[in-house]
């Protein structure tokens, strides 16, 4: 095989082209190696600043490597991969040339690097290659894994080590260090790629025609008269060409942030620098909880770039801008990005990030099933995953969406993925929600695999013998796996038995059983003692009534409800349902009629205290934006402490009758910066952006308001419009910032969004760092707003 022998190598291609507009942070893109003249090459300098320019692994990556890319038993192609000089992007060869932006991937978009046969693709299709030569690059979002085989084990190790160093250095870089790499006197590095593309004759000089091309590339349709006036003001050589410092001046003036300058000058006075007391005044007006003189001095030390100013405890405009663009200056409270909530309360007191049909990577009719879907769910902080278990050949249970054309995966492979990946992002417990369609023999095989593979991770008995039925806390269950399944009554046959209709719980299974055979329905009502014993704290039980029974149900009983049934309970028994969920876990799942794996809004279910609100993680949309926003805080650990009104067993709260407004949220939408082009390869594609702010909470709080649109300017549009909302239950509210491209004749196109809990939204002047439809960063795209919360 070609990849195995590494023969017939093609001639190494030319230096890769520079990509068009892609979602990358300011300062990541460098000009190609062939570029010369007055436009400086910052690439190698970037690696020097990262302390990696002399690193042997990184230098080998800069030279490039030919890998065998594995997709299937028959699709195994040799491809060249090479680290770009910026140190943060990798160019790769394609058989059929495509748009430049589709020939690179970015180090910041890598989720994990796995060695050996540690992906589904390499386990199935890479058996002919020794594990030491194999590696997998897993990406954030929906991008597929990259399964590669190196010519030698040493070359594979160089890339594993090199990418690891680059990722670690990028994660460790402060906003200050990133700007230090590209000081204000030098053109922002990301613009170099566009300069190179706009410079049609490659003379490192820019005519007015080339400048107009540049403006279109960066999403600006500037008035010709204004653009030419700015061009002439920067053309100090009077030769109708901009070069070197003239280009830098043009770009600095283009990149000006007058709204930030206005705020800065309001506090700095005539000397145009902020002293520590003046910065403290700004912080107090921002509503910063830790606004002290010492904190102001620390911010100057962290973000100021001018050493002389820093020595005198002064902050310049550049330092002020860097602070406002940093995580400390963002809308999300940086203190909430760590685990900050009480994690010692019972499991029922938390919202728990939950996935439905976790094994699917596409629709539930004919989409593929994959263990990688579980890996990606865990990487997103998911703590409850679903396993649809069916009889498989050779006595091995399989997982797939029954009675459909979805592919099948082995139950034991999924459990192995749980062992390897469940706790890479969060240490808090994982719930395996079993939808069991197997007979007794294969149920016993499932129990055996759970014991053998998970070992001590698996909870097999109660932690507190004195209170065996009480739900433990996430803290006490760190690193443990819980099984949610059916439980045999205390008096049962040792070889298993058929549950009565009263004991059978799972409505989801019943819906699917209606289209199955009689034998499958019979098996679904059986439970083996081995599997029953593993349902310790999550015992599946039908929710018969919300009226208090003579004997209260035990807290370890978990109900599964379809979205329709849950909405009915919310509507007809709001407060009773809230009280039930204060003590018991409730799982909600999408209707089976959602054939394309569409989602429902999870907010309704959270309003009533439902903990396990299961969504199709593989389907992007506003529903998953809300889920990501809900679990964005508390260290993204997958557990969010419910508000007090949803935790008290005697609460009077009813989401349908929340009472009068008690909080006013006022948001002034000021500007946006560097919004991505919707069609990166189409030069004349310029967005007409508008901003919509949505409130998702109890029904009385739900609202959406939007600004006017700005014509033909995605680079630095200005609005200056104020939107106001009255809130009754602010502790449940999510705020979603959405940017769309206005279209008068058809629905607006999505540009970017960011969602977060109102309780984690900081007041004052803040940047909103936008995300794409699948949750990936759109950096450097931001909104700049002023936020005021009263009440």
Automatic annotation (TrEMBL):
Residue spans of biased composition, Acidic residues class: 502-516
A GO biological process held by the record: lipid catabolic process
Cofactor: Ca(2+)
Main subcellular location: other
Gene3D superfamilies in the record: C2 domain, EF-hand, Phosphatidylinositol (PI) phosphodiesterase, Pleckstrin-homology domain (PH domain)/Phosphotyrosine-binding domain (PTB)
Catalytic reaction(s) noted: a 1,2-diacyl-sn-glycero-3-phospho-(1D-myo-inositol-4,5-bisphosphate) + H2O = 1D-myo-inositol 1,4,5-trisphosphate + a 1,2-diacyl-sn-glycerol + H(+)
Boundaries of every C2 domain copy: 645-772
Coiled-coil region list: none
CDD domains hit by this protein: C2_PLC_like (cd00275), EFh_PI-PLCdelta3 (cd16218), PH_PLC_delta (cd13363)
Enzyme Commission number, as recorded: 3.1.4.11
One function term, GO molecular function aspect: metal ion binding
Highest rank taxon of the organism: Eukaryota
InterPro entries xref list: C2_dom, C2_domain_sf, EF-hand-dom_pair, PH-like_dom_sf, PH_domain, PI-PLC_fam, PLC-delta3_EF-hand, PLC-like_Pdiesterase_TIM-brl
Pfam families given in the database record: C2, EF-hand_10, PI-PLC-X, PI-PLC-Y
Region of interest called Disordered, as start-end residue ranges on this chain: 1-39, 492-523
Keywords on record: Calcium, Cytoplasm, Hydrolase, Lipid degradation, Lipid metabolism, Membrane, Metal-binding, Phosphoprotein, Repeat, Transducer
SUPFAM superfamilies xref list: C2 domain (Calcium/lipid-binding domain, CaLB) (SSF49562), EF-hand (SSF47473), PH domain-like (SSF50729), PLC-like phosphodiesterases (SSF51695)
UniProt topology in membrane: Peripheral membrane protein
Gene Ontology cellular component annotations, sorted alphabetically: cleavage furrow; cytoplasm
UniProt-annotated location(s): Cleavage furrow; Cytoplasm; Membrane
Annotated ranges, domain PI-PLC Y-box: 531-647
Biological role stated in the UniProt entry: Hydrolyzes the phosphatidylinositol 4,5-bisphosphate (PIP2) to generate 2 second messenger molecules diacylglycerol (DAG) and inositol 1,4,5-trisphosphate (IP3). DAG mediates the activation of protein kinase C (PKC), while IP3 releases Ca(2+) from intracellular stores. Essential for trophoblast and placental development. May participate in cytokinesis by hydrolyzing PIP2 at the cleavage furrow. Regulates neurite outgrowth through the inhibition of RhoA/Rho kinase signaling.
PANTHER family tied to this protein: 1-PHOSPHATIDYLINOSITOL 4,5-BISPHOSPHATE PHOSPHODIESTERASE DELTA-3, PHOSPHOINOSITIDE-SPECIFIC PHOSPHOLIPASE C FAMILY PROTEIN
Protein name: Phosphoinositide phospholipase C
Species annotation: Ovis ammon polii
